[in-house]
């Protein structure tokens, strides 16, 4: 799909044979066909990047400029939602006349930027570029705040006064993994955006006004702040994970303690049973009328005494 954004007009979806009186300020290519690529190339005189170009790991392929100050920028890993959609690359070609974007997945940031362009009537491609980057960063901040909120709720649950069982703690570990996955997608996306913004500010082409440069400077500062926030969230996730593993280890130690106390409490009756189970000819207990009940009582008493002793010493306190 090819969407055209012209100054002071609503967005128009291009169809074959459509004529335009002037070049739009923003051309958005969403998983374009060959015809849409061909039209964008003929209308702008720019080379539309291929998917292999925007996914390339080579820095020269991701960020470069031509002699006429045309900037070719790309973000190989981009995800602006936390709903499980697979991340996809985006490419940007920026000139003083037009902004050409290439993407292969739905994006809330592009929708917000399009609405903002219609509301504020941006006149230059640099203004649209700054608006798009601001929308991407604002959504990233919102996603990180969502992760922070869910992480706080998870932390309160893990450190609740009530004792959590191992299955529930395992569920908490899975939740930590889910939040870490969300944050990892945010981190990877923002890394590409930060490189694009830093390169654009350092290059500062002639078509970029001072107002746009100031906006990009604010975005660059926001990205650095989000990077620090990301470190805090990562440390908090690791802390909650370590705490969950510690509680699971405590439960395992409790089980081992119960088994140990139980085994110690059964040692005296085992000794008595072993003695009375000997096959000697002369055993006085064999002739006692109450020998069997007395033996059972002695076995029970030999088990109760160690248990009472452990409880008196406080070895079962809180368990």
UniProtKB/TrEMBL annotation:
Similarity comment: family membership: Belongs to the CorA metal ion transporter (MIT) (TC 1.A.35) family.
Organism: Luteibacter sahnii
Keywords noted in UniProt: Cell membrane, Membrane, Transmembrane, Transmembrane helix, Transport
Membrane protein topology class: Multi-pass membrane protein
Tagged with keyword Disulfide bond: no
Main location: membrane
Transmembrane segments: 258-278, 290-310
One protein family per Pfam: CorA
Subcellular location: Cell membrane
Highest taxon, organism lineage: Bacteria
Signal peptide feature range: none
Name by which UniProt lists this protein: CorA family divalent cation transporter
InterPro entries associated with the record: CorA_cytoplasmic_dom (IPR045861), CorA_TM1_TM2 (IPR045863), MgTranspt_CorA/ZnTranspt_ZntB (IPR002523)
Organism placement in taxonomy: Bacteria, Pseudomonadati, Pseudomonadota, Gammaproteobacteria, Lysobacterales
